[in-house]
Amino acid sequence: MKFRPFAAFLAVTSMITTAVIVPVAPAHAIVVFDPSNYAQNVLTAARTLQQINNQIQALQNQASMLTNMTKHLQRLDFSSLTQITRSMQRIGTLMNQAEGIAFDLASTDEALRQQFPAVFDTALSTNEIVTQARARFQASMQGYRQTMRVQAQVVENIGADAELLGELVTQSQSATGSLQAAQATNQLIALSTKQQFQIQQMMAAQYRADALERARQQQAMEVARERTKRFIGSARIYTRN
């Protein structure tokens, strides 16, 4: 039998291959970690979160601004106009009730011509002189009575104004917005203006009474001179013949 070396080699190789079985492992995917990409994603998420926080803060600021605007536009639930108006009306009523010579230009001119003429009428009788003197005295007394009534009313108003002033100051201090503070300030100014008007009216009444009294005294001096002249008579009576 003829020996063939190459054929024998193939046979041995085949046997070894058959005897030694090499298991083949299945293929698996390999996960690759990219630090640079991960850092970029984290940074993007952080920026997005910051933008959301900024938007939330902006909305909160807008809500706070609207709340403050509401407070600033809130009106003051207190008005002193009625009380101030009534006080001024009481003073005005007293001024209009002036007797004798009223606080009216036309009435004043007419009363002055009748009771306080610029030139004394020497043709008046004694009874007429006495009647006019009595009328002037009554006018002077009415002027002083009017002054005292106005002064009394002003004093009463001052007492009420003190309480109103305290209330307005309290309203001003507790104001929650600029509108309420402005309205309280305006009412304080109105109260101060009203008090100035009261002082002016009281001064007008006082000056009126003083003017009437001075005019009465001046007329009384004219009357006294005329009556003295009539009492003494003509100088010819005392002249010797």
Low-confidence stretches: 15-22
Distance between the termini: 224 Å
Q: What structural class should be given to the helix and strand makeup?
A: mainly alpha
* Number of beta-strand segments: 0
Q: Provide the residue-averaged pLDDT.
A: 75
Strand percentage, roughly?
A: under 5%
One letter per element, helices H and strands E, the order comes to HHHHHH
Biggest sheet architecture: none
Report the total helices.
Answer: 6
Return Rg in Å: 56 Å
Signal peptide: 1-29
Coiled coil: 42-69
Protein name: P-type conjugative transfer protein TrbJ
Keywords: Coiled coil, Signal
Describe this structure in words.
This protein is mainly alpha-helical. It has a domain at 126-212. The protein is 76% helix and 0% strand. It contains six helices and no strands. It has helices at 5-19, 35-72, 81-96, 105-115, 126-173, 178-232. Helix 5 runs antiparallel to helix 6. The protein is rod-shaped, with a radius of gyration of 56 Å. This is P-type conjugative transfer protein TrbJ. Residues 42-69 form a coiled coil. InterPro entries: T4SS_TrbJ. It comes from Novosphingobium mathurense. Residues 1-29 form the signal peptide.
